[in-house]
Amino acid sequence: MERLKKILLTVIFLFLVICVLYFAFHIDTVEVEGTEIYTDEEIKDSVFKWKFMDNGLVLRLYNRYFQTGGLPFVEDIDIYYEGRNKVVLHVYDKTISGCIKYMGQYVYFDKEGRVLESLPRRRKDVPVVTGIKFGDFSIGEKFKVEDSTLFDVIMNVSQLISHYNISVKRIHINNGDVTVYSGNVQVHLGEKKMYNDQFAALSEVLVTTGKKKLSGTIDMENYKTGDKIVLKQN
C-alpha cells in the first residue's frame, strides 16, 4: 500500500511539473518574416504540425533532431526564441525560375532546372515556360532537355523579371529566340545569352502598358542601349 502511494504521488508530481512547464513555455506569439510565397498561417501550420509543438521546450527538442516545415517552396526556416512565449519564424523561400504545364499540372523548377513541385494551380508571379521539350522528370531532380544552356537563359530572364518586378505570364523559347508575354503585350527579345539591357529599358514601359491596359507587340531583337522602344498596337 505504501509503495502504491509513492507511485501515485510520483505520477501526480510529474504531471504537475509537466503542466507547469507546458503553460510556462507555451508559445503565445508567433511572427513570420521573409517569405513572399506563403501566407503566415501556412508557415505556422507547417511548423506547429504536431500536438504540443506550441511549447518552446518541445519545439526546441523537435528541431534538434528533425527538420522544420516541409513546404515545397521553402528552403529553410530559422526559429528565433524571444523570451519564453514568443518565437519569430524567418523563412527562406526557394528560388522559382518558372514552371511548365504537364498533364494538367504546373511543374515548378529552380534556376538549375531542378524540379521543386507539381501542383494543380499556377502561381501568378511565376511565368510559364513554353517551347522547350522536356524529357522524364522526378521531384528533386533536373529536367532532361536537349540543350541544357537554355536554363541559363531562363535563369537570366526570370531574375530580371523579379528584379524589375515585371508581371510576365509566359516565356516562350523557339530555337533559342525568346519572347515574353506581359499582360496583353508580346515582347520579342531575340536570341542572346543575357537580356539585362532589354529589361532595364522595358521595366517602365511594361508598367505603363499594364496600367493603361494596352495591347500589341514590341520588337527588341536588334535593340541597343538608348534605342527607342515602340509598341505596335493591335
Detailed description of the structure:
This protein has a six-stranded mixed beta sheet. A three-stranded mixed beta sheet has the order 1-3-2, covered by helices on one side. It has a three-stranded antiparallel beta sheet with strand order 4-5-6, with no helix packed on it. It is an alpha/beta fold and 234 residues long. 30% of the residues lie in helices and 27% in strands.
Q: Secondary-structure element sequence?
A: HEHHEEEEEEHEEEHEE
Oligomer: single chain
Shape: elongated
Question: With helices defined by DSSP (H or I, 4 residues minimum), what is the helix count?
Answer: 5
Roughly what fraction of the amino acids lie in strands?
25-35%
Feature tags:
234 residues; alpha/beta; six-stranded mixed beta sheet
Brief digest:
30% of the residues lie in helices and 27% in strands. The chain is built from 5 helices and 12 strands. The model has no long low-confidence stretch (mean pLDDT 82).
